[in-house]
Amino acid sequence: GRLADPTQRTNCGHESGDYLCISVDSWWADVNYYLSAMPFLAAVDSGIMGISSDNITFLPPSKDQTNFCYNVSSCYSSFPETMKKWNKFYQQVKSYSSSFEDLLKYLWAAHMSSLKVAHKKFGNRLKFYSKQEADFERSWALFVDYLAPPLFPTTLIRTAEFQKGLPTRMLVDGDKAPLVSDFTSFQNTVLLGLNFLHKVHKYTGKLSFIVWKTLMKFKVARKLFLEILDLILHCFN
Ligand SMILES: *[C@@H]1O[C@H](CO)[C@@H](O)[C@H](O)[C@H]1NC(C)=O
Ligand SMILES: *[C@@H]1O[C@H](CO)[C@@H](O)[C@H](O)[C@H]1NC(C)=O
Description:
- The chain has helices at 27-46, 72-78, 80-94, 100-122, 131-147, 156-163, 185-203, 207-215, 219-236.
- It is mostly helical.
- It starts with 26 loop residues before the first helix and ends with a helix.
- The structure holds 2-acetamido-2-deoxy-beta-D-glucopyranose (2 copies).
């Protein structure tokens, strides 16, 4: 239900209505536009798809059109920094000399740039959700921030395993991790972990993030963290 209209003003994305519709009022959908449509256009721009940039324009949503961009040139003029970062990533993809580590570095830089822009724009959407759901969405985005410094390798299998930890429905008042009965133990644990991270981040006034970033500059620390994360994934899956 995360892509559905949270205001309930339309039946967009709701099971009883237009189920495949993605609502422009959905925080999750809006943020992910910046993580899917924008990188797609940057990929087109880089030439790896063999499509001419002038041939692709997305249709705008019914409202809030200025919150999004629809083709290569309008994305560049509205979000130059982010588009440049995605372009840089695809240039690395095209270059045979770049290592997997290099790719991760550029991927995460672009990803963080997209998230930063989207985060600023769509914070106002979170008021449409239950406190539990809004907190979850906020701390999920925060968690992604923490995954960037260790350059989490977003390979398909690892990411798919990892996403099994996502709560499979929107949270409602009264859902309290790790005791949500229709969630798996993995989902309950992820939720508990996210709440914990959010608290630490808030109470240390972001100091925890700075410490984390510094720590992850050390190869040993980064390797250890990724190994622990893999271990956790294996345990649950
Ligand atoms: C772009 O579109 C034009 C016509 O609209 C077409 O002739 C051309 O083949 C397309 N080019 C690419 C690379 O898709
Ligand atoms: C790109 O989109 C803008 C509106 O967002 C439009 O005015 C412009 O014509 C489009 N450019 C191309 C090449 O389709």
